């Protein structure tokens, strides 16, 4: 497996992974109307714009056939000084649990450390217990709860924080 920075040619694949994962992960957590409204085309526009915004980016994981099997995205977090947001983490569903997500988390953690951030955080939608368990297992601690807004759809969410990035460079 190879992890590398995203390029424009990757957008179609990450839009598909992103859309498919949202529709399955957040089923029975977010309203069906919101999930049904998600399209590959809209996600493609979102991620194309995202990676071309200053200080934002993403990494993709590729399998042995150079197929994109997952991605993670990042951007600065304005609420805390020197803090990077792990903004998105998605792995093709059929291979979730194989360690690819952990490798992508560590890639973003190393990026944060190497770019002079001191902390990293991730937002999770309440009810996504599997994700919360993974991040907690990897050292993230509960920081605060808040109401997130997904294009007009409110969601009870939490911020989990890694306040020591050294763990990402020691492994």
TrEMBL record:
Gene3D superfamilies from the UniProt entry? 3.40.630.30
Q: Which UniProt keywords apply?
A: Transferase
Q: Which domain of life is it from?
A: Bacteria
Report the InterPro entries cross-referenced here. Acyl_CoA_acyltransferase, GNAT_dom
Q: Which SUPFAM superfamilies match?
A: Acyl-CoA N-acyltransferases (Nat)
The record's annotation in CDD domains points to: NAT_SF (cd04301)
Report a single Gene Ontology molecular function: acyltransferase activity, transferring groups other than amino-acyl groups
Mind telling me which Pfam families this protein's record contains?
A: Acetyltransf_1 (PF00583)
* Domain called N-acetyltransferase: residue spans: 1-166
Q: What is this protein called?
A: GNAT family N-acetyltransferase
- Identify the species of origin: Clostridium muellerianum
Organism placement in taxonomy: Bacteria, Bacillati, Bacillota, Clostridia, Eubacteriales
